[in-house]
């Protein structure tokens, strides 16, 4: 059983508390920290939390809690982590880990120096579909991963601080690109080093300093390319989709919209539909269980089970640090309009993988490029001569 200090009373802290008080009922939020006393009391009353504090350090150092969950604005993650590490508490931080790789590295150093358990709360790496897809990839179902695409778009964040570039550290890239980047790493392999990023970003709709739309490409040491798409200007709800292309197959995932639960209603009674849904009438797309669909249940089960066993969770502060390094390169690329190197001070994975092209034997003379059945029922075979390199085709019955 773990007693938890929850830092923050916003949307994500409510999601986390709902999850913690649900599936793993042996664990509970025991202390809630809020920057405003009234909001803290309301939150505590709603979720049955015994203690409320408007002092972050006091909340973290409460003698009855052993885990700290950070659900605060991005600019507060570093201070909260350092205080938790000094208090020798296990610490779990929401995404993104920090506003920059420098902040993320300071946080990583703090938890590693203190020797405390640390987890990166990247929920979309824990969706049931993502977990199964990643296992299928590891088991070789689609061969070598060549390309991934991850998309998160919606009409914009819930709270005002997201729109403040100083507090958030950026816009749509740091808010949602962090999800897409880590999902891609899970599919390509976390031991594969990200080398460089090409990114376009712009402010197309909102009167803010940060970007509200972005598209990026990340090139990995294996030769794989990972694509991310983010937008705060997408209308129609929240669109979460992933694709993976391998040498032997393809995976398509749709996590939130058009997943088989569709309802038409006149809107006579209204009511909550799903996160960032824009309408309560007409054709709507409810989500059966958002905690499950968005990965929160599996995420906290992994975090707390790993803590119990004394092992690392799937997502650690180091993962969050690598994501921040990639995001830094994306912002540099958006400004320079060219590929920018990913700078990682302490790389834990593989080094210098030589990308290879699969050469499938056809016979002693040829490699097979492609075999395809044509509309007339005949089979076309495209071959490459092993010696000359000449490409030819054959048509057989």
**How many domains is the backbone divided into?**
3
- Element pattern in H and E: EHEHEHEHEHEHEHHEEEEEEEHHHEEEEE
Instruction: Label the structural class.
Output: alpha/beta
Strand content: 25-35%
What is the fold-level CATH name, i.e. the topology of the largest domain?
Dihydrodipicolinate Reductase, domain 2
Shape: globular
Q: What's the story with the biggest beta sheet?
A: 7 strands, mixed
* Unreliable residue stretches: none
Distance between termini? 67 Å
Q: State the helical fraction.
A: 25-40%
Which quaternary structure do these chains form? single chain
What is the CATH architecture assignment of the largest domain? 2-Layer Sandwich
The strand count comes to: 19
Computed over alpha carbons, the radius of gyration is 23 Å
**Strand arrangement, largest sheet?**
12-11-7-10-9-8-15
Task: Supply the number of helical segments.
Answer: 11
Going by CATH, the homologous superfamily of the largest domain would be: Dihydrodipicolinate Reductase, domain 2
CATH class call of the largest domain: Alpha Beta
Average pLDDT figure: 95
